[in-house]
Design brief:
Layout: H1 15-19, E1 27-29, E2 35-37, H2 49-53, H3 62-73, E3 77-88, H4 91-96, H5 102-112, E4 116-122, E5 128-133, H6 139-142, H7 155-164, E6 169-172, H8 175-185, E7 192-197, H9 205-219, E8 223-230, E9 239-244, E10 249-253, H10 258-265, E11 288-292, H11 296-299, E12 310-316, H12 317-324, E13 330-335, H13 337-340, H14 356-368, H15 371-378, H16 384-406, H17 409-419
Parallel strand pairs: 4-6, 6-7, 7-11
Antiparallel strand pairs: 1-2, 3-12, 3-13, 4-5, 8-9, 9-10, 11-12
Length: about 425
Amino acid sequence: MIEIVDKKSCVGCNACTEICPFDCIPLINDDEGFYYPKIDHSVCVDCPICDRVCPITDKLPETARLMPYIEKAEILRYNEPLVHASYSTNHEIRIDSTSGGIFSELAFKMFNEGGYVGGAVYNDDFSVSHILTNDRERLPDIRSSKYVLSLTDKLFPDVQEKLKSGNKVLVCGAPCQIVALYAFLKQDYKNLVTCDFVCKGVNSPLVFKKYIEWLEGKYQSKAVKIKAKDKTEGWHKFSMRVDFENGKSYVKNRYHDPFFVGYLQTGLFTMPACFDCQFKGVSQKSDITLADFWGIETIDKSMDQDLGTSLILLNSDKGAKYFESISKNIVSKRLTMEDALPGNSAIYLSEEEGDEDLRKEFYKDLEKRPFDVVIKKYFPMPTFMSNLKIQLERVDRGFAMIKEIILSPTSTIRIFKKFFPTINLFQEKK
């Protein structure tokens, strides 16, 4: 049975809660605002079902866990993904999307086929949950990143019911959520397409709530719409945008918005499991992985108009075929992992964990002190020197990641073959 001893071993995916036949594993908020399962021992019979569905503590051998998936769906998975830089030809969709609008095009394809789309939306209180819908009018709500832990609620059983009824389904979530979905389903389905994203980490719903409440007090009006990574100042200098009932709007770029500064530079309110993420690397369990193609301007300037360009990693033949089906609605160029990696270190690297004592102090202050006071103490706005330091640290991390990848045996062989194609490293001596 699931017992959370170390919070770094739980991603809050909700799979154990939904799979439990005795309904004895509710999700409970901790003092940081994250959701964790807590077993009701008065009802629990100590069966192993919750352990087997957990994407982290899964106790089934890999071969046994994948057998139904392989035998029933017969999906070809790639050892190394197919890489594309892409964006939607629909200008409005591209502008309103986090990166290049590719998820929207994938979703439109599913809606046009009468299928269902699952993704994260803001609730009325601006917490975040996953929904599953066949209403294309909900796509603007699903579109764009939410940098807060999302509750999957009834997503997994709803997806299962739709698939068993023969409906087509597209589901987008964090890598850990997609792995949890497959574990819950116990198999892949030909009528299921999964999509995850390159994840830097998810953040505390409590901190986000305090942040929105602070803005509502500042603007003396209720927030009605939130757009993370708004492109008012361009894609490269993305902003947080919050619109209010009184017609006013808050727009601050990532260097001057306290939520983005805290998230991107401190890690003080990132979920503990994200500091040692077990779902990094390529060839994810999803069919398609999405991300911003940071650095595309140095690779192919024609693909960058500062409006957003998507990095596409196709992990299976099912994902590749589905992506090909939207080709008439997008601009896309085939590239390589060597092109993608320099600007997208989060593919391989987890968020760095900050000082534990400072984190405890932060949450104590968050509980007792006004949010603007907390901002000034923990999220100082950047200076020239602090910006320079951040950039140098990112460069160092990027070089470390590339060195690690290049020095791996498989990568070394691939690179050697690229530059010396006529030499057979494994040719037997005669």
